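Hello,

I think I submitted the magnesium ion job twice by accident. Can you confirm which output corresponds to this input? Input:
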Amino acid sequence: PQGQESPLLEGLNPQQREAVLYRGSALLIIAGAGSGKTSVLTRRIASLLESREAWPSQILAITFTNKAAAEMRERVKAILGQGADGMWISTFHSSCVRILRREAENAGLSPSFSIYDSADTKVTLKRIIKALDADTLGFTPGNASAKISKLKNELADADSYARNANMSDPQEVMFVEIFRQYTHRLRAANALDFDDLIGETVYLFRAFPKVAALYRRRFRHILVDEYQDTNHAQYSLVREFTRAVEPHLAEEMEATGVHVRNLRDGTGGIPGASLTVVGDSDQSIYAFRGADTRNISEFERDFPGTKVILLEQNYRSTQNILSAANAVIGHNFDRKDKKLWSAGGDGEKIVGYTAYSGHDEAQFVSDEIEVLHRAGMAYRDMAVFYRTNAQTRALEEILVRSAVPYRVVGGTKFYERAEIKDALAYLIAVANPNDELALRRILNTPKRGIGPATETALASFAEANQISFRQAMRDSASLGLGPKVTGAILTLATLLDEAALKLIPENPAGTANVSELLTFLLDGSGLLTLLRNSRDPQDEARAENIEELVAQTKDFNKENPDSGLVDFLTQVSLVAAADDLDDASGTVSLMTLHTAKGLEYEAVFLTGVEEGLLPHQMSANEPGGPAEERRLFYVGITRARQRLYLSLAMTRAQFGDINVAMPSRYLQEIPVDLIDWRQSPGMANSRGGTQPRALNARRDGFGGGFAGRGEPQALPPAPKKKTEWANRVPSQVRDNGDLTLAAGDRIRHVDFGDGRVNQVTGDGTKRIAHVQFDTAGAKKLLIKIAPIEKI
Ligand code: ATP
Ligand code: MG
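Support: Only one job matched these inputs. Its output is below.
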């Protein structure tokens, strides 16, 4: 490179720069959290484009979530100052769906195939297990789907499994039968489950070298983020993408007019794409989904000529946070020691907080968020992490009450709501008429007098006559059902057929977009009207959700004027955990530790650092379980830039019980001088507690498991009295209805005592009282639910 250096190298350290500029067939970047792996990957893409070594269409970048993909695309755009249309930056699943829809015919599918989520899989397995009486052998939809998924991640199918199974074991025989029937049912329904998306693409490439050659020719640069969490199927896919195109196939392509000349090498073939992967084995947290860090450790063997680059400087966190992270992960065996360092200074100490209860912990988090916010930190720069979704209940209750704006990332599960699945099933049934699951879902939703016996009769009729369930519905007159039931089935079949006609462009009325189609189906089926007219108050919320879905289809039409029904359904299917269609600005993010991977925040609250939660009790009996949980803790710690809070509760409500919790063993692994411990004022005899109490001095059941290495840690004193605290924490969200408050009013709050209203903002259910409490300071309260009364 001569002359002026590209600005996209600005600020990079020598190793990062090398990683951006290296050109060769395979590059492996291994580095700890926050060392710029994702940044380097992004700049590498920009560098390839800027130097015109690659066209956008020649780049395939794989990220872990759709959100990460969108961010990477934005960043490339920002660096280059222009969009890069034609570039594929997406998750494994999204890339595979795109390929499979295009190549559906070769894969034995129709392009509008359905994508089954885990709930769909379980419903299907439930039917199979029932038909086979397999529950008597201990099979459940849960354990069967877990086993099938695991096998699919290894690229095994029912036949290959059967070849190695002990077929004198009735349980094995039964499992093979379940697996076979499951595969068969999905095929018949023109459906794939999530694991199939990867596996089928691999099979497609292996079975159709000409198809594979087209993609190998197209994608010249493959880049994969978070490589430590790839499983065998994903690894195989990467391999397939990066294989060379044989000379005779290149020849054939050229003969058919595909432009390949400038890509061919001395042999006449097209060399394999260049591959760049970045990863950190210490952040491998998806072993339960088949992720295999051997993909990293054996990378150099798998891709000869690999260049390895290590990054060690961390640009994200303060040294205190990093030292804690290093100390924790240092307790895992079997790892290459790498020490992260930061030039950013020590920063603040980590704050530890011992709460009495989950509510108390939530109150602490909420109060600290307000403290940080008042000190100038934006809500969007703060995040609260937890191990299990159940922990959100207390957090949400308190945050709502304190009027802290927040959103649960990946936890809203909007598309998993029954009424949304119902409405979507109508769309799916139109897109993919073979989808028996969708048809059976809407057969009697809303209620139209078609009972389970009729449903079974239709299914058997379809099977006996080798026709689809949909066709069986059309032919239902010959089933000898009562006239009313037959009429109801035919009406539904006609509605779906009419809707399908609207999609056919040759039909004058056939260019309906997704929202028109959905509206047509909702009107025709009466689904929405029935919910709106229902007396069940829950149905009002359900109707609102469906209206929200209609609004989403309208947005979709606007944003994707050239996309149709199948594109919409694909987008819905692929919304992964860390993805949210909403804009995150201005809110605190709540998410599980798994979802937090790859993200960063100025302040992080890591809650529930207790035995049983972290490590999670389910991990206890699994080999490598506690080590994987430690990596999860490490991932959580290393998300924080400036401020890190570790909190635990001594009692936690779980499954309706109050359990006594013990501090997580991992806390002891953090050097004592890095944490400033505080504890709940509701139970403490010493406020503030900067001087940590010795862990091993405890005799009341909290000290067990802490003897041993390292410095003793701060530890919570015993709860004073359970009842006393329980009384302080209202367990239910109340509804103040239309309590009218105005500036100057005096109020009494259950927790904060008396105070004066300074101002009321917002309207309707979102009215917020800004209150100056006599002793508790200034608070903002959502009037509708705050535990307050006017005095
Ligand atoms: P993780 O392992 O958590 O995925 P990562 O290795 O991918 O982390 P990045 O997210 O790329 O790390 O970078 C962490 C932070 O450091 C980002 O805010 C990024 O902008 C910043 N950063 C990376 N490299 C540099 C640099 N050379 N100078 C300044 N900031 C940098
Ligand atoms: Mg990253």
